[in-house]
Amino acid sequence: MKLEQLEAFQTVAELGSLGRASEHLYKTQPAISQSIKQLEEGLGVALFSRAGYRLELTQHGHILYQQALRVLNEAASMQNMAKHFSAGNEPSITLATEASFDLRGIIPLLTHVQTQFPDTQILLRQERLTGALGALSEKQATLCLSPSGPVQLLDTQFTSHFLGSGSLITVASAQLLSRHPNLKSSAELINEYQIVLQDSGKYSGDKKWGIQDGQRCWYVNDFATKQMLIESGMGWGKLPQHQIQKSLDIGKLFELKLNDIHSRINLDYYLFKNKDELLGPVAQMLWDQFMAYTFNIDPAL
Q: Which residue, 133, 232, 220, 122, is CA-closest to 174?
């Protein structure tokens, strides 16, 4: 069984005559007739009834026609994928994102890449704190989205492009605040649990950002769990504004405005790539799309 035999079978089944199939496939009628005869001999069943003027599918032919369409579609998909790879396009690219970044802002870009390069898999790898930059540095990611401080921006290892800004807000629930009716400083919360996001990278070392000495802590590995614990009154901590804006609006969470810590931390987000690594066509197109795109990181969305 050959693909050209299946193509002849499909065309004759859909057009109903050897003559029309011959014009469509740019082959002679005897060649098409021979292809179908060989296919029938190989399958051991008659595909067409030849009793009338128009070639009609037999009962077996109807069933095998549907199977032939699936085989031809799979073959076409394989051929397209091979062309995609032979053009130098990557089988997959990995985009590492820091967990506080609002992914809604990049959906149009990802949709465009998916449409233009359907045979390249895009792997979204969500990391925490230094994890996204770490994945890029260790060549486990093609590109990364991460907040960055001056030291990282000056690192000659990376090329960066500014995307937009966001905020982390220190919050607690009404249940926790009811235990501290005159709360003025974080020192008063030292015996409450501060819910802290663990770093998925290794570049923070032993540094603990925003944790006072002696503070009780619970450590989690995602913002959803952190929000759930804080909303239940089990602790307090910082959460991305875009994630909790609705909870703030309805009074499920309250911003802690204390006199010894900043209630909000503003984060500038950048797209990073390794300077010493040449991007493939798909990753380069994604990078170019980011460079040309205007980001609106709006917590009210």
A: 232
